[in-house]
């Protein structure tokens, strides 16, 4: 997405995956909010704003392990593996890379705790909680923006996982190699590529179609499965290499002095946050299922700093061992297992990493657009229908062509991705600063002009203008440095630019011309 990331990340695969895609937060005092009840119709609830998927949850059952497993699926993917390994190739000392990883993931944890609070407290998904910020109609603005981003990245991630599946297939059936040549394909993808893409497309659709409980069970299993395979892979490679031949320092290029290393460390920190920017914005869609905010915070602690650091160290050990074993550094786990002269190890490792990538794709890029598109027309578009719209759209966009064209990624996905920051900043400012953590649940389901969240014809002009005020510079931070060929490091921080400006702009607009009224306690939701 950011052209200057080539200086930080060694491959376009990593760039594509990173942009897919990611604490001390709100006051610990109890939040005064409506009770989450059965989703029986509220008095005066408008059907144009409601269906069983968008209504407040009847029961919130997820514990800290389910949140932990969610983050395991986000981290334990091919993209997460390559990303962690790539940070050790920045010319930094190992301790500097470790500091960058820890600082970056702590920032992610902080923001995830923030964005989790409103959805967990009300039991509603991201597009619905935005009605209290953007208005009951205006909430479709962030929903559509987020949905478009997710469609694009859903396709790209499915393609990346399908390419890994192709490698495994060719390992066992080398006679299929002619079918893997793009020249024999259609619209830029080989026949075997289409087969692999279709297999994963259908597999993801089947898991999604079975509902959130099936997805939860899949995620609960997928993350730990990758740990088992990675530990076995690391033990195998270290045993073959000998511990004395394994170096934990993967730094490449000329060593940097302390002064020169600071901006590189900051870029590495921004890279970690960028990788998780999508899951961060989407996290409310999952925190709504948690039985308490304490469970969310505990799950985030286990799943982010602790899990991410352990996974990163395991990644480094595995990647380091590939040098003495295979004679070259390999940061792609699928390629690593494909080089092992053991069919069982290849199929077990390859399919496990493919499944893990499917897991992150479902939780990061499938569920969220399902809510987003359902939100546009709740009575005609169910959650499942919304998800299938995203799935079909991902094919129509032919993501394999975007992946192979850095310019297309820069000017399409990059521009959309730069809007993630503003949407995040506006939501946080609206909930914590302007609304002071007060939400009237029933008011988010009425189209009455007298409703609290009707604002101006259903739109909060402050939120709309804050999106523009933050979106323009964040997009410009991606485009202008590329066009002029200078200061390209700025685009590494597009998320921070958009988030910061969105937060400040919305808070300022509401102070000058208030639209959100937080002058009273919210009333309990009707059963």
Automatic annotation (TrEMBL):
Gene3D superfamilies: Hydantoin permease (1.10.4160.10). It is found in: Membrane. Keywords: Membrane, Transmembrane, Transmembrane helix. Coiled coil: none annotated. One of its GO terms (molecular function) is nucleobase transmembrane transporter activity. GO terms for cellular component: plasma membrane. This is Nitrate reductase. It comes from Sinomonas atrocyanea.
């Amino acid at each position: 997405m950011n052209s200057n990331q080539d200086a930080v990340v060694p491959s376009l695969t990593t760039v594509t995956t990173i942009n897919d895609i990611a604490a001390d937060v709100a006051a610990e005092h109890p939040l005064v909010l409506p009770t989450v009840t059965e989703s029986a119709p509220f008095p005066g609830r408008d059907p144009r704003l409601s269906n069983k998927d968008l209504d407040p949850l009847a029961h919130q059952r997820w514990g800290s392990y389910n949140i932990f497993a969610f983050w395991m699926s986000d981290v334990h993917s091919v993209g997460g593996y390559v990303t962690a390994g790539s940070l050790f190739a920045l010319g930094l000392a190992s301790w500097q890379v470790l500091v960058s990883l820890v600082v970056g993931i702590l920032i992610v944890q902080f923001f995830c705790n923030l964005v989790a609070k409103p959805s967990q407290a009300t039991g509603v998904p991201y597009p619905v909680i935005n009605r209290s910020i953007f208005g009951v109609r205006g909430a479709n603005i962030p929903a559509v923006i987020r949905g478009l981003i997710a469609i694009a990245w859903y396709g790209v991630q499915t393609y990346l996982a399908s390419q890994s599946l192709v490698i495994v297939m060719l390992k066992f059936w080398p006679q299929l190699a002619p079918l893997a040549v793009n020249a024999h394909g259609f619209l830029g993808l080989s026949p075997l590529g289409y087969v692999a893409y279709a297999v994963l497309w259908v597999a993801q659709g089947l898991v999604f179609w079975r509902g959130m409980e099936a997805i939860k069970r899949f995620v609960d299993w997928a993350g730990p499965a990758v740990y088992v395979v990675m530990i076995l892979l690391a033990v195998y490679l270290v045993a073959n290499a000998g511990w004395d031949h394994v170096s934990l320092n993967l730094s490449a290029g000329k060593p940097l002095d302390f002064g020169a290393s600071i901006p590189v460390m900051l870029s590495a920190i921004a890279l970690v946050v960028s990788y998780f920017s999508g899951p961060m914005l989407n996290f409310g869609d999952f925190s709504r299922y948690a039985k308490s905010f304490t469970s969310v915070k505990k799950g985030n602690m286990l799943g982010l700093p602790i899990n991410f650091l352990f996974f990163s160290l395991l990644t480094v050990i595995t990647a380091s061992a590939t040098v003495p074993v295979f004679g070259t550094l390999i940061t792609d786990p699928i390629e690593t297992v494909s080089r092992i002269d053991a069919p069982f190890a290849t199929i077990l490792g390859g399919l496990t990493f493919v499944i893990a990538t499917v897991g992150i794709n479902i939780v990061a890029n499938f569920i969220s657009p399902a809510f987003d598109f359902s939100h546009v027309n709740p009575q005609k578009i169910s959650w499942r229908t919304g998800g299938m719209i995203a799935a079909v759209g991902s094919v129509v966009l032919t993501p394999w062509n975007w992946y192979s064209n850095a310019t297309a990624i820069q000017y399409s996905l990059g521009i959309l991705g730069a809007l993630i920051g503003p949407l995040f900043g506006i939501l946080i400012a609206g909930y914590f600063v302007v609304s002071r953590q007060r939400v009237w649940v029933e008011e988010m389901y009425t189209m009455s002009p007298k409703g609290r969240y009707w604002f101006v014809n259903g739109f909060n002009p402050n939120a709309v203008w804050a999106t523009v005020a933050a979106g323009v510079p964040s997009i410009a931070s991606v485009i202008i440095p590329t066009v002029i060929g200078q200061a390209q490091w700025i685009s590494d921080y597009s998320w921070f630019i958009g988030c910061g400006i969105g937060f400040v702009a919305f808070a300022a607009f509401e102070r000058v011309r208030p639209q959100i009224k937080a002058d009273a306690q919210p009333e309990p939701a009707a059963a």
